Amino acid sequence: MFFISLHYIKPLDEVDRRLAEHREYLERHYAAGYFLLSGRKEPRDGGVILARAESRARIEAIVRDDPFHRRALAGYEIVEFVPSRSAIDLAALEGDPGLIGGPR
Predict the structure, then answer these.
(1) Radius of gyration of the chain (CA)
(2) Which residues are CB-contacts of 79 (< 8 A; sequence separation ≥ 6)?
(3) Which of 5, 10, 17, 87 has the fewest C-beta atoms under 10 angstroms from its C-beta?
(4) Domains in the chain, ordered, with CATH?
(5) What's the per-residue H, E or C state across 68-79?
(6) How far is CA 74 from CA 8, 32, 41, in A?
């Protein structure tokens, strides 16, 4: 499993111009089963993605496909980890203001 942390390296107005493309990218990888959970950071200086894939190389290729990466709008940190415990189903987190900062 992988934790991907994005941090914006360009002004928010430049990031916002590519937000629709980035959301399409997210949807593609959710549909393919790679992305499990994602959202923006607070304060809004980047975002996070929880992902799964068969290898780090695959995740690195997926990150290179992000419009934010292709257009040099964000830097990325990829942390690989082996889950050993889980408190709840991740789907239960979506839209819960007490857990992830409110609805999308």
Answers:
(1) 14
(2) 2, 3, 4, 5
(3) 87
(4) 2-82 (3.30.70.1060)
(5) HHHCCCEEEEEE
(6) 4, 23, 13
pLDDT along the chain (104 residues), means of 10: 97 97 97 94 96 96 98 98 75 51 36
pTM over 0.90: no
Q: By C-alpha distance, which of 29, 88, 31, 93 is closest to 58?
A: 29
| E strands present in the chain | 2-8, 35-40, 46-51, 74-80
Please give the Cα distance from 68 to 26 (Å, whole number): 11
